[in-house]
Amino acid sequence: MKQPLRKDLEPVAASFIVKELVEPHFDPNWHFHPHYQLFLVEKGTGTRFIGDSIKPFGPGDLVFLGPNLPHLWRSDQVYFDRQPDSNPAELITRGIVVYFTEDFLGPDFFEKQEMTPLRQLLNQSRQGLEWMGPTRGQAEKALKNLSKQPVGFQRVISLLTLLNDLTLATDFRYLTSPGYTNTVKPAETDRMQLVHDYVLGHFPDDLSLDTVADLAGMTSPAFCRYFKARANKTFSEFVSEVRIGHACKLLMNGKLNITQISFESGFRTLSNFNRQFKDITGQTPSGYVKTYRRL
After folding, report:
1. Domain identity same for 75 and 190
2. Is the pLDDT assigned to residue 1 strictly greater than 60?
3. Distance between CA 132 and CA 175 in Å, rounded?
4. What is the CATH number of the domain that holds 239?
5. In terms of domains, do 170 and 212 share one?
6. Domain-terminating residue out of 121, 148, 174
7. Which of 77, 134, 223, 253 has the CB geometry, 3.0–4.6 Å to 218, for a possible disulfide?
């Protein structure tokens, strides 16, 4: 896999970019770019990786990212393993994404006194933000309207209005840990991509550290130091979060009991699953389901 980790967008004449994404699956590559990104998932499920945050995603997922924050919306494997007789309309991903740069309205626009709340929102987005509750529904309507507007003055006003509405909302949370910084270099693409792909493809199994280190072309101790420096967490913590993220999706789906979900997510004992679930989410599996159903 020879994809650049730093992603450069095609230049356009307009001040910012709005895209409606309709694809078999979302971009499977771990990447970052110098643009702010506001992204709404309309259809599709999977696991969202942002900096050192790992969460399941589904329709309605609304996230705002600052520049150069590594991210990946990894669609569930079913979107890649399509059967010849499957209905394409059933397995499709849809989303609306907005990209803009710090100076998309001029080098000093957000430095003006009136722009203080927006400037604060932009600074907060460097940790990654997601909105829940009523704000998510309101923003979804605004983004759908924005995606249908032609390039022009009104579209700029619509974006600024949406960003201003987000500054007033309180039902948000940060995604990355406070001390997270992007230490990944573009030249390291292959190594990190291999690790992500291997873990996402094998997390239900007994993962071997030696195997993953060998894939990365390193000894196990060297790989552990390398991964901790880049991901802001240990490799075992990363694997646990991937497994718990998958368990969260299965819990939301509601088709399996907790013991089955534990096994399907790669845990060999229910007690270990319950402990790690509480450590990572702050809730028990049953408590998580109750919280999800209230949203």
Report:
1. no
2. no
3. 12
4. 1.10.10.60
5. no
6. 174
7. 223
Residue 2 lies in a domain: no
Residues 88 and 32 in one domain: yes
Residue 229 and residue 95 share a domain: no
pLDDT of residue 145: 95
Interatomic CA distance for residues 81 and 97, integer angstroms: 25
How many distinct structural domains can be found in the chain?
2
Taking only the tens place, the pLDDT of each residue in 247-275 is 988 888 888 999 999 999 999 999 999 99
Q: Which of 174, 201, 219 is the last residue of a domain?
A: 174
Which range has the worst mean pLDDT, 8-17, 33-42, 90-99? Answer: 8-17
